[in-house]
Each structure stands twice: as C-alpha cells, then as structure tokens.
User: Which sequence fits this backbone?
C-alpha cells in the first residue's frame, strides 16, 4: 500500500510543552530559600552585550525535556540559560516547560546548586540505572552537549566550572573563583554581599568592568545620576523641579 501524503514532520507529531507535565512528577519537595534567591541573583545580573532579554531564556526549576525518543524524560536544572530563542511578552504565552525538540535550541549553560542529596549525580559520580533515564551529567554532557556546566556547593563554598571539550566535560581551573565565558563576554564568580536582605557568598555575573548590577543597584545608580544632574542645574541657577 502506498502512502499518498508525506509523513508529518516531528514538530507536528511530537508532544509539545502543553502535552507534557510541567510539575514535579513523582518527586517531593520544592526549591528552598537559597535556591530561589540565588536563581534571582543569576537572572538579574545576567546582561550579555550580544543578546537582549528578548533573545534568551533564563530559567529556574523549569522542566527541560531533552530526548524525542523518550518524550516523557526530563531534567529540572536549578538554573539555565538558552541563547537565541524568542521570549514572549504575553503572560498567557509563558513557557510551561522547555522542550528541546519544540524550541530547536539547546541550553548554553546549566548551573546546579549542590546539596548533600544531589551532589553525586550533579558531579557525574553516579551510574545510570538499568531501564532508567540517564543522569544529569549524561544529559548535559552527552545528549544535549551543553557547552558550559557550573556547580556550586554553598556548604563548602566550592565553585566548579566545566567546559565541553570534544565529547567530554573538562574541569576548568578557576582563578580567583571566576569563570569567564568568552562567547557572551561575561563570567560567573563568587561575590560576598547582601542580596534580598540576605548576607552570604553568592554566584554572580561580572564583565570586564566588574560585577553586573542588580535591579536595586541600577535604580540607586540612576537616582544618584539624577541627583548629580539636579545639583549642576541648581549651580547655574536652574530649578530642576520646575523642568
């Protein structure tokens, strides 16, 4: 028997994010306070010069579906970045999950925040169980081939970076606890300070000029700039409040 019509492309036959679960399936627990605050700081200070906010996805605890042969398999990275994808400005169009075969772009960077229960898998020290999905390390390194992988253990202040070299992740020697990513002209480093009223050692983005500002810091810098301008106007006899 001959087929009159050509088969539909995978994009039209594979499940989309609307078909796949977006909640934790068969898992207990939600991100703790540290995970939430750290993810916010990574997203706020991520300001690459060659990508606008509309051209990249910054995701935290968003299901990542990675294998069209096993469409129900997913990982849930603590934080990840995808470059060159279109972001929506409409609430109803926000992603439920990130589905690689639907989006057509793999993540550029994954960050995992280590905890005692996840450390071995996050660092590739566990073996895949028979008839079970691959480990995080296998997915990031061998299936999606994500160029950069970062892990941070806040309990020991241990920050490690890995770069894909051929088919394997290669550990990068981090000078001064800083990891530079040449493609986006930014790096990740350990910063001691207060964020969301919480003092600690945090992963934060920097560029050639220093630490990239948070929303609060940007607002404060703008306020100081406005104050300086107002002083200059008053010095020449102009009331800035009348402008």
Assistant:
């Amino acid at each position: 028997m001959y087929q009159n019509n050509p088969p539909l492309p995978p994009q039209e036959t594979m499940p989309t994010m609307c078909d796949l679960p977006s909640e934790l399936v068969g898992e207990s627990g939600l991100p703790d306070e540290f995970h939430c605050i750290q993810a916010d700081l990574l997203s706020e200070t991520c300001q690459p010069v060659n990508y606008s906010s509309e051209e990249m996805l910054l995701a935290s605890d968003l299901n990542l579906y990675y294998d069209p042969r096993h469409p129900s398999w997913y990982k849930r990275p603590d934080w990840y970045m995808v470059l060159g994808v279109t972001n929506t400005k409409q609430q109803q169009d926000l992603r439920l999950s990130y589905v690689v075969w639907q989006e057509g772009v793999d993540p550029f960077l994954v960050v995992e925040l280590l905890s005692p229960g996840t450390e071995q898998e996050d660092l590739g020290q566990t073996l895949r169980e028979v008839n079970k999905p691959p480990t995080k390390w296998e997915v990031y390194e061998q299936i999606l081939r994500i160029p950069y992988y970062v892990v941070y253990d806040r309990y020991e202040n241990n920050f490690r970076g890995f770069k894909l070299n051929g088919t394997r992740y290669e550990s990068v020697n981090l000078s001064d606890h800083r990891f530079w990513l040449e493609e986006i002209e930014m790096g990740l480093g350990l910063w001691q300070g207060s964020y969301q009223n919480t003092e600690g050692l945090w992963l934060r983005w920097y560029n050639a000029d220093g630490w990239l500002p948070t929303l609060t810091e940007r607002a404060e810098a703008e306020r100081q700039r406005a104050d300086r301008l107002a002083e200059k106007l008053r010095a020449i006899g102009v009331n800035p409040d009348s402008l």
